[in-house]
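Q&A log
Question type: sequence-to-structure
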Amino acid sequence: MSATGPTVLDRFRLDGKRLFITGGSRGLGREMALAIAEAGADVVLVGRDANSLARTAADIRARSRQAWTLQADAGTPEGCTRACQDALALGPIDILINNIGGRRVNVPIEEETLADWQALMDLNLTSTFLCTKLVGGAMLARGRGGRVINIASVSGLIANRGVGGRHYETAKAAVLQFTRATAADWAPRGVTVNAILPGGFMTEPNQRWAREQPEIIRTFESQVPMGAFGQPEDLGPLAVYLASDASRYMTGAALVIDGGYTLW
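Response status: OK
Response body:
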């Protein structure tokens, strides 16, 4: 704080806040969790893998913040509901990041089974609804405001070239509209709801795509004006902004971070 009062950087501080993030132990989720911890918040991590949860929790504690881990498959309605209930039992949540999702399968529409479609819609869309309903709903009931950040995708705006699994584009477009509608409903009650739309980032799933179907990754990367995929840590500062008072007057926004991929 300066002699004349809070500085602009003070508005990014998250001291005394608590984050709940799905898929928070690896990839984009891990980097957002670490960034928000560095800004001062404690973190409740949800993930499927106990080892990666433990590593990320240790890294958060090394930043002098508290961390709790909940091992659950938040991509299923049952696992997601349980994780939200367990997180709320730990204490009030101020920031929610709905991060889990993924394409997972490269299947043409005409070959995708209904079971796969429904399971992947649960992963990418239903999880966002349930966490928003339960954790965001608790923010409303508490009456002290809050922040909801939905990780959508540029795939909610365009159809990716050369890949199947169109449940992903469909679900991410729905996440974007769910963000807008919920933001309109909750703005008078002090809870902002915004979306981040990442483009290509070299996360573990994309590393797997690069090994198994390298032509998909090469094609995507060649169409990024900045010439390369983003790094997971590039999302951290944007998440801190949306979680903090710096974004106080922003709600219903869709912030694209894709190296210019959607410009062409």
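Response note: The radius of gyration is 18 Å.
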